[in-house]
Amino acid sequence: MTISLLIVDNELEWCDQIKEHLEKRPNIEVVGILHRAEDAVKTAPELNPHVILLDMLFGKGRMGGITAIERLRASSVTSKILVFSTIGEEDKVFSALQAGANSYVWKAEGLEDIADAVEATSQGISVCSPTIARKLEKRLDHLLKRLYGISLKEILRGEAEEGTGASGESPISR
Q1: Residue 174: its pLDDT value, please?
Q2: How wide is the angle at C-alpha 58 spanned by C-alphas 97 and 104, nearest 5°?
Q3: pTM for the predicted model, two decimal places
Q4: Lower Cβ count inside 10 Å, N or C end of the chain?
């Protein structure tokens, strides 16, 4: 199966570089390159790509990546959304995932890792850069401790017992 891909990023040189690299893989076809998030919201329903590779920042006064994700998810678009960005503020990562992004990787990961992420995301596999995964782990651990009085590591080691949380609910029976 050929993966149709829409690239959305305001850095023209980067778009050309990523397109050239991705199209070396016989199973990836770049069906469009857009430089504004608002154009992606308008164009994606027509193109209906398997994956949208979306940057987060598009400049002052422009629609950002999170708003674009929300609008794409509210539309008829069924594409998987892979966010790739240079920003790593925790709130941006979580906001993008909460808005409906399927995966989130750093541009600094390298072109080969981004190509792998496109392929995985197209198959419904969520991909996160290791740094992002650590942030997600820390946030989940914090929430589990606050809500249930137990750490993520305790759950993963099998030390959690049902009903042991501070709320009386079990984090492992959900």
Answers
A1: 47
A2: 25
A3: 0.81
A4: C
**Topology classification of domain 3-128:** Rossmann fold (3.40.50)
pLDDT of 83 over the 90 cut: yes
Give buried/exposed letters for 112-148 (b at 16+ CB in 10 A, else e). ebbbebbbbbbeeeebbbeebeebbeeeebeebeeeb
At 128-165, the pLDDT tens digits run: 888 778 888 888 888 889 998 988 888 888 876 655 44
53: which strand partners?
7, 82
pLDDT tens sequence across 42-64: 999 999 999 999 998 887 788 88
3-state secondary structure of 40: helix
87 burial (CB, 10 Å; 0-12 / 13-18 / 19+) is middle
Nearest to 101 by CA among 87, 117, 82: 82
Instruction: Residue 80: count other Cβ atoms within 10 Å of its Cβ.
Output: 23
The domain ranges of the chain are 3-128, 130-174
